[in-house]
Amino acid sequence: MLRMTDDIKLKSAAKLIVLAGLMLLVVLYFTQVLGIAAEIYGVVYPLLLGAGIAYVINILVAAYEKVYFPKSGSKRVADSRRGMCILLSILTIMGILAFFIGVVIPQFGRSIQILSAGFPAMYNNLVAWANQNADKLPILQEKLQEINMDGAALIKKVIQVVSGWAGGTAALMGTVFGRLFNWVLAGIFAIYLLFGLEDLKRQFGKVLRKYVGEEKRARFHEVVGTANETFSSYIIGQCKEAVILGLLCTAGMLIFRFPYATVIGPVIGLTALIPMVGAYIGASIGFLLIVMVQPFTALLFLVFVVVLQQIEGNIIYPKVVGKSIGLPGIWVFAAITIGGGLMGIIGVMLGVPVAATAYKLLSRHINERG
Predict the structure, then answer these.
(1) Are the CB atoms for 246 and 269 separated by under 8 Å?
(2) Would residue 257 be called left, alpha or beta, if left means φ above 0 and alpha means ψ between -120 and 50 degrees?
(3) What are phi and psi of 73, to 5 degrees?
(4) Tally of helices (H runs) and strands (E runs) in the chain
(5) Is the dihedral of CA 233, 236, 239, 241 positive or negative?
(6) Rounded distance, CA 187 to CA 86, Å?
(7) Given its phi and psi angles, is residue 213 left (phi above 0), alpha (psi -120 to 50 degrees) or beta?
(8) Selection from 125, 327, 367, 134 nearest residue 230 by Cα
(9) Number of alpha carbons in the 13 Å side-chain half-sphere of residue 38
(10) Which residues does 268 contact at the CB level (< 8 Å), separation at least 6?
(11) Per-residue model confidence (pLDDT) at position 88
């Protein structure tokens, strides 16, 4: 018994020494390790993207499986259930994408065109007003002299900056084709994952049972189950909120006869996919569109959006989605900020469900200990 205890202590000490050695190597060669990690990430990125696509599609597959003759005892129905539900889910996704490509994205593009056409005149009027009152604000006069360009020149400057970020036309085309290739690979991998999901689960379960203890397996299943519940609820909730908010905004703007209703409504619905701040980004675009033609109406539009957000957020969203995310508002804001800082728009989208999963697991662990 004493010998067994000594062996356990030796193994624990050896693990600590190896871990400390690895951490020391990472610290000493941090730049090299970071470069290797970036290369590995670039190689496996299509697979990770495919896994994410498969996960989203599988949410629809699970929903279709519940209504695809669930009580039928026919072997033919049982054998075809998975394939048919995957096909229906892919067709649903393609229909949604067709709607976005055919309706929402053109409306978003139209809003950009309207802004580009009307912005120079609005900007020049604003500069003229500022010049008339610049003597009251010396700092404003100094800034205007530094800018020294009209609205059209400012737009050209913005386009030049964006082109510089893109690295030129050739680099931009290369980036587009590279992204397209990654998406094609990811789509193929996602289909393979969907059809082989049950086999993968069974094989992974065998590996866990062989090499992982029962207590650690239980903890692993708890973490995966909580993450799956949180991510699926979050994805479904954000999509429902975006659709509802877009429809309500379009209908309300038509009722109150706001201009550009069919342009601004879909844009707000699209930006609402970004948690917490997305709808306000869309509202800002709408405000800029309206203020160029009807300044007072633009103020009324802002009041309308704020009221609509309160109704949707406090009444409709809890009824439709519920509080399944379970993350307080302050941590939602923190998750969006940190996620956006680390990974951009992808971090913004994933920050909330990752933080919500960690919050649920930590709360559960603390309550168990308490």
Answers:
(1) yes
(2) left
(3) -95, 5
(4) 14, 0
(5) negative
(6) 13
(7) beta
(8) 327
(9) 6
(10) 245, 246, 249, 279, 282, 283, 286, 305
(11) 92
pTM beyond 0.90, yes or no: no
Q: Are 260 and 293 in contact (CB under 8 A)?
A: no
What the block records as the tokens of 248 is 């309500």
Amino acid sitting at position 227: A
Rg (alpha carbons) of the chain, rounded to whole number: 27
CA distance 354 to 358: 6
Report angle CA 360, 364, 369 to the nearest 5 degrees. Answer: 150
Could you tell me if 316 and 333 are in contact, meaning their C-beta atoms sit under 8 angstroms apart?
no
Eight-class DSSP state of 69: S
Counted residue by residue, the chain has a size of: 370
Residue with tokens 């203890």: 213
DSSP, collapsed to helix, strand or coil, labels residue 212 as coil
DSSP 101: I
> pLDDT tens digits for the chain (370 residues)?
545 565 666 767 777 787 787 888 878 887 887 888 888 888 888 888 889 889 989 999 988 988 888 887 788 888 888 889 999 999 998 888 887 777 766 766 666 666 666 566 655 655 565 566 555 555 555 555 555 555 455 555 555 544 444 444 444 444 556 677 888 888 899 999 988 888 888 898 888 888 888 888 888 888 888 888 888 888 888 888 888 888 899 999 999 989 888 888 888 888 888 777 777 888 888 888 787 778 788 899 999 998 888 887 777 666 655 555 667 767 777 888 887 777 777 777 788 888 888 888 888 878 776 5
Domain boundaries, the chain: 212-364
| Token pair of 55 as six digits | 């996960």
Distances from the Cα of 171 to the Cα of 46, 168, 290, 345, angstroms = 20, 5, 36, 21
Q: Which two tokens stand for residue 281?
A: 């980004």
Helix, strand, coil abundance in the chain, percent, nearest 5 = 90, 0, 10
Q: Cα 330 to chain center, whole Å?
A: 18
Q: Encoding tokens for residue 194?
A: 């969907």
Q: Tell me the angle at which helices 105-132 and 278-291 cross, rounded to the nearest 10 degrees.
A: 60
Tokens representing 238 are: 């954000």
Residue with tokens 């409306």: 107
